[in-house]
Amino acid sequence: MNGGFSDLLSAVGSTQSLSLQHVISAMLLSFVLCSMIAKLYQVTFQSLSYSRSFVHTLILGGMITCMVMMSMGDSLARGIGVLGALSLIRFRTVVRDPRDMMFLFAALGLGIACGAGMFAVAITGCVLLSSVIVLLNWAPFATRRRYEAMLRFLVEADNDDVRTEIDAILDDCCGAYMLLAMREAVQGELLEYSYQVRLVDPSYQVDLVKKMEALDSVAEVNLVMQRTTVEL
After folding, report:
1. Rounded to two decimals, what is the model's pTM?
2. Are 208 and 199 in contact (CB under 8 A)?
C-alpha cells in the first residue's frame, strides 16, 4: 500500500527535464507554424472588421501555450496549478466570427503539440490545416449564389400606374422580391418604398438601378447589397 501511494506521489510530482536546445526548438517551431496560420488568416480574410492585434494573438497564443506545456511537463501538480492560475484570468474579448475562433483554436493546438514534443503532429497538422484553409477559400463549397439586396426609392403619392411598371422591372431583374416597408415622405407628397430583393445575377444590379431611374415618377433609387452590411 505504501508503495502504491509513493508511486502516486511520484506520478503527481514528476518532472520532465528539458534541454535548452529542445526548448528553443519547440518555441521556434511553434512560432513558424503559428505564423503560417496567421498569414493564411490574413490572406483569406474576407470580412471588413480586420484586426492586426488578432493576427498577433494567433502567433503569441501558440508560443505561450507551447511554453506552458513545457513548463507543466509530466507533472500533474503543475498542471492543476496552471489551471488554477488561468481560471483567475477573465477573457472578455468577444470573437464574433466562428472562423476567427477556429483559427485561434488551431494556433493553440499547434502550441500544445510543440510544447508536448510532438513535432511530427504539429508539422503534419499545420500542413493539412493550411491545405484545407486554402481549399475552402478558393472552392465554391458552401457558397450560396443568392445576391440579396435592399432597394429603396421614392414614388409620387398620386401615381398608381407606376406600381405596375415597378413590378415588371422587379420581375425581370430579381428572382424574388418582397415589400418590407412603405412610408410617407416630403409631407405626404412622396412615398418611400423599401424592398428586399434577390437578384438573378450580380450584374443585374446596374440594370435594376438604371431601369428604375428611367421611370419619371421614381426618384432617389438606392440599392445596397446585403453582404456589405452583414460583414460589418
Report:
1. 0.61
2. yes
